[in-house]
Fold:
Amino acid sequence: MGEMTAEDRNRVVSALERTGGALPRAIGGLTAEQWTFQPGEGAWSIRECADHIFVIERLLLQTVRDLADYPADPERAARLQGKDERLLAALADRGFKVRNPFPTRPSGEADSPENLTRSFLELRASVLGYARTTADSLRDHVARHPLLKDLDGVQWLLLISAHTDRHIAQIEDVKLHPGYPKVASQTASTPG
Structure:
């Protein structure tokens, strides 16, 4: 097992590139009212969803980097073969609601969509840089996730993009809420 295969690396990098552009597109051009709109009691605003993506991504990247310091455990890692698809399917199933298993605080970066986008893109560049260049034996190193159980390093990297996808869908749901503030359309006046 050991170092990421070219196939693993391509899959991870492709997913990270795709979702790295998805968040800026989802929050670009939002008004302050749209950014902070609360769709219901206990439901997250777009601001809270986007900030959560950022905070968790930072935490997940640190987890992956820390894996190199864990002793390799090829036997434990071998039991995770084939878990990639189950992991991705579990994250895509938004019918299954979970509470954030990590104690986190708001980042302080989400005062506007523009600031959160800038901070997110810097962080995602770090994640991509790591994924593109690491020689760490990610498939041999395992860490426990509070809900998803054991994950190897490649699975932790896949979790980053799957987590982003999950919350981009949540952001799009907020935009479909009947009370979501709409931007007044400007009509072009014709001379006449």
Observations:
- Confidence is low (pLDDT under 50) at residues 185-192.
- The chain has one domain: 6-176.
- Residues 153-176 form the longest helix (24 residues).
- The two ends are 73 Å apart (CA to CA).
